[in-house]
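User: Predict the structure for this protein chain, please.
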Amino acid sequence: MPSLRFEWARIDDLSARAFHAAIALRESVFVVEQNCAYQDADPYDLRCWHLLAWSGETLAACLRVTDPGTKYPEPSLGRVASSSAFRGQGVGRRLIAEALKRCDEVWLGRSNRISAQHYLLRFYQSFGFVPVSGVYLEDGIEHIEMLRP
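Assistant: Here is the predicted structure, written as structure tokens:
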């Protein structure tokens, strides 16, 4: 299991190199690997917390957490991406655990809502998320809305 250093920051506090690494990782996963042409960088990036998981100088995984009332009434995890070089090593699980820990500390007693890719349903259920919608298409990929009470 690789050693990870977690970095939490608002966009203005990220270095240009760190934000570039996050966008490059997200594009490699969501645009290239999943063959889905869409605008990844969006206005939510400007109004959220970014969580980057570094292994040495390499970005292993990242996600963002939107504040309550920004995308949903609850804080919301999104743009969860793991580098292909780090998959199968528990990095994604550690990333989500770190994000939920922070959400619980910052927004004590608040639920978390996500729009998860449907194939990751059981992964997110293992963190206490439950489906609250049917399956729907987002950018041509099956998703499901989930809530962690």
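Helices lie at 16-33, 91-106, 121-125.
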